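Researcher: I'm preparing a figure for a lab meeting and need a structural model of a single chain. I don't have an experimental structure, so a prediction will have to do for now. The sequence is pasted below. Please return the structure as tokens so I can convert it later.
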Amino acid sequence: MNQDSPLLIETAWEVCNQVGGIYTVIRTKIPAAVAAWKENYCCLGPYVHANVQAEFEPADSGDYDNPIGRAVQKMCESGFEVHYGYWLVTGKPRVVLFNPYNVYHRLGDIKYELWEHHKISTPSDVELINQVVAFGYMVKEFFIRLADGQNTKQKIIGHFHEWMAGTPIPEIRYLNLPVTMVFTTHATLLGRYLAMNDPDFYNHLPFLNWAHEARHFNIEPSVAMERAAAHGAQVFNTVSDVTGEECIHLLGRKPDNIVPNGLNIERFVALHEFQNLHLEYKKQIHRFVMGHFFHNYKFDLDKTLYFFTSGRYEYRNKGFDLTLEALARLNGLMRLYDIDVTVVMFFVTKRPFTSINPFALHTRAMLEEIRQTCKAITEQIGERMFNEVAGGISPKLPPLETFIDDYWRLRLRRTVQSWRSKTLPIVVTHNLVDDQKDEILNFLRVSQLVNHPYDKVKIVYHPDFISPASPLFGMEYNQFVRGCHLGIFPSYYEPWGYTPLECMASGVPSVTSDLSGFGDYAMKNLRDYEEKGVYIVNRYNRSFNDSANQLAEQMFRFVQMSRRDRISQRNRVEAASVDFDWSRLYRHYQESYRLALERF
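Model: Understood. Here is the structure written out token by token.
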């Protein structure tokens, strides 16, 4: 450990704890952080995830001879449950994890301290707040021991992400500890609630009363902690200019720095193979589509395009409402102009369900039975044809059907007849708990976009995340993305938005919006962004109808592109992704740390 350089201690609720998008930010940023700070870098997180041992490797006894290890030992000697080791991700950084339940018996005193010192009142019956407050108390105790002059003379930078990790900031400032602090908000808590409930959120933003709105949504304690963290840190960051405006009005502080999110692009790099991977994974999606649709009718898979959207189920915020409206208009345009292309649109999100729809499993299983039967017939024909050909110099081949046993001929016929159905292909692959209240399904029912044979746009609503364990797809999510042709994410509220960036890294064009952090950044920093497969829907100061028309027109132009043009665009998309690698974007974080040290 370099004793002449500062220590960087980065704290997040998502360290070794995958609960949201910030986990991706922290995890993918680590190789760049470790490269810049080496052993002077450490992460802090909660010891709450059920599978934490899969990501955590305990330190050996010899690893404690450094300021971080000594601070951990002092905490353990004081009776705290603290785990010190390494995060098993690329870069393998030092990590300290705190079990918040270890101090639950002190919650009354901890909350009293919050009120007495900072006038922040916290309820006793909200489990998340109890966890966060207890975790924050333990992090504060860690910094007290780390910043002890007898432990180290190094300068210490404490970096905290979001309100759930920012609760120690006010108390560290109150105690005047020798720690300079950076606070990054990735999305204001209040902004997310408001955007979900106010269709004109951005125009109303300058006139909102944060305290009134926080009380209205019953999130006043969390918002108060977020504001205290934003005002207590020496440096305040957010991830985009769009969210920066939100911070000014809802948190009362203008960000000192914008720190756009990147990816570890190396993890996605397939070099010249990425076009081949697209073909390979597209074939796997073909198999699903055949099982899902072909029992009733068929269409030409060589003239089929796969669109998708994914992410947290926030109907308005994620732009699901706009996407559905634009798809209905696209369907009308394609039917009107008789476009000889089929679009299959996948909605991949997480919703409560009881089981996979038995019909979806049945059609998939029957298709597999047909495939296995055809394979057996093919092998039999091949063997008998070989024997026939080998039996003479100039054999005269009889009709191929004579090579097939009656057993296999009848078995294939029975299987196909059992598979065929007059039932329309189902829209949703699972049995939802709130089927009658689901907003996606209700739109599809009203618009009659329910997979009729004459529809050019087909819908598959998959209310669970895609994984190899899924009996319907049997593939990784990133493989599914590579197999698709276009990602659609026209969010109304999206402080950054990793999904279009993940598409770009996989060589897949995508649609985003000017109200997403990624879209705003691309418009300002990526030259000829549409040529590079980043389509941007204008939603700021635009009506829903105008934005829906624009999105429908963008998709309509896309379906009319030639195969050669799509291949060429995928090449440009993949090449442009390097601009979003953390090796280039981490400099924004370094600027925040430089500024924090100046204000020490």
